[in-house]
Task: inverse folding
């Protein structure tokens, strides 16, 4: 019965690296009917310390294609889809929709948010794993009624503070533990057995050889799955990763109301992004008109510069600084982050 | 106030256990540490006390989630003697 169920199941594994290597091997060995593997990267010799599906003879070849070759030898009855593309805003929902659930085995935060968002919007579970040095995390996001990645981490960390495995180093065997755990959670969800890690974050501490668990709930204010969700589609600019904010003061959306007692909101969204209005008292100058309309700004005034998701506003702050404006703050996460906290605003 | 009652923002210290993960484990140079704080302190106060010792923590404040006794809580959660507080920065590698 269970085996038949697995044979008709379709799983998408995003990232064929340290976590993907073990996860893929256990999913294939278990007899999941169809496995899609997304990775646009090539095998590098520094990967072999933890990405055990690859060999020295594979250097320079695409990871998804090599992984499929290996897995065919392990279980030829599975249908494999090697997808040698970057998982990106323009293919995320389409890919996720073709499978019953996804495993997040990636190594960058922007892709983790993209996978989570695509899964929630498409009604698929996101079986999440991540590792850093000696610490690992496992959870299941986007299951019916359960929380999502944004409920746990509404905000991505500053990019410069978060080295990847390639930069920060990781205990290779920890990738094996966490990736195998992801496969186990995926099989449980597909089979409807046991108690998957929904609303629970497993913390693997390989130094102390301890596993802890933290419980969390769906956040009613979550921008994606909350009661007044602001994220209703995948917009490319939201996932391109915030460029390092070199010296630009940032403001969290929760503090915008306070800040606007002393400052003016400079809304740089383009007209098509702002059809449903803005915050009262905001000065609206689309980023594309900023050069031409700079004379409308008062260099003695304080401005909080905001766009839809926080990328254009950063650009605008940099441009205004070059022009001599100094009292500028950038709204982190953009007006979408603010709207997520204020049901009365509809910005999109 | 009744005799013997614990003042909400009193001077009696309480001791909590702080667990740090990921990057914060390295910044604090310890996976586990004990912290003396005033009775009635909130999670945000405990963070501030740690950030006084280690100012590099502050850039992680807005992205770190904090659990108390195994449950994610907000910064205004009131701490009690013996609580175990886990600092959970996002972990992104794979």
Result:
């Amino acid at each position: 019965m269970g085996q038949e169920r697995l044979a008709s199941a379709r799983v998408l594994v995003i990232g064929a690296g340290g976590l993907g290597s073990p996860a893929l091997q256990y999913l294939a060995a278990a007899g999941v009917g169809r496995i899609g593997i997304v990775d646009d990267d090539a095998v590098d010799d520094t990967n072999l310390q933890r990405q055990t599906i690859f060999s020295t003879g594979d250097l320079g070849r695409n990871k998804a294609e090599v992984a499929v070759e290996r897995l065919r030898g392990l279980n030829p009855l599975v249908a494999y889809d090697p997808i040698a593309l970057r998982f990106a805003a323009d293919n995320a929902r389409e890919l996720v929709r073709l499978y019953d659930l996804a495993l997040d085995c990636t190594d960058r935060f922007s892709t983790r948010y993209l996978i989570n968002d695509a899964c929630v919007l498409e009604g698929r579970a996101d079986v999440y794993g991540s590792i850093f040095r000696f610490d690992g995390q496992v959870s299941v996001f986007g299951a019916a009624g359960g929380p999502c990645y944004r409920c746990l981490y509404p905000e991505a960390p500053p990019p410069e503070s978060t080295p990847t495995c390639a930069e920060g180093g990781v205990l290779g065997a920890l990738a094996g533990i966490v990736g195998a755990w992801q496969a186990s959670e995926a099989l449980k969800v597909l089979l409807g057995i046991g108690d998957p890690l929904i609303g629970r974050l497993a913390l693997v501490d390989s130094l102390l050889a301890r596993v802890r668990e933290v419980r969390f709930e769906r956040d009613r204010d979550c921008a994606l799955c909350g009661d007044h969700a602001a994220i209703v589609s995948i917009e490319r600019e939201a996932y391109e990763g915030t460029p390092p904010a070199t010296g630009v003061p940032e403001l969290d959306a929760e503090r915008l109301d306070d800040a606007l007692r002393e400052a003016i909101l400079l809304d740089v969204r383009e007209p098509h992004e702002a059809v449903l209005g803005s915050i009262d008292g905001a000065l609206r100058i689309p980023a594309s008109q900023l050069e031409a309309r700079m004379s409308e700004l008062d260099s003695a005034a304080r401005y909080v510069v905001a766009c839809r998701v926080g990328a254009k506003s950063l650009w605008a702050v940099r441009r205004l600084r070059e022009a001599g404006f100094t009292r500028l703050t950038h709204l982190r996460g953009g007006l979408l982050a603010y709207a997520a906290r204020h049901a009365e605003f509809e910005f999109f | 106030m009744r005799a013997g009652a614990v003042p909400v923002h009193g001077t009696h210290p309480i001791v909590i256990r702080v667990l740090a993960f990921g990057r914060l484990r390295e910044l604090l140079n310890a996976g586990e540490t004990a912290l003396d704080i005033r009775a009635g302190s909130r999670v945000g106060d405990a963070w501030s006390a740690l950030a006084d010792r280690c100012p590099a923590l502050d850039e992680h404040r807005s992205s770190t989630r904090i659990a108390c006794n195994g449950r994610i809580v907000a910064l205004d959660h009131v701490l009690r003697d013996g609580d175990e507080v886990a600092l959970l920065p996002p972990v992104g590698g794979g």
Observations:
- The domain at 2-239 of chain A is CATH 3.40.50.720 (Rossmann fold).
- Confidence is low (pLDDT under 50) at residues 242-246 of chain A.
- Chain A touches chain B through 46 residues (CB under 8 Å).
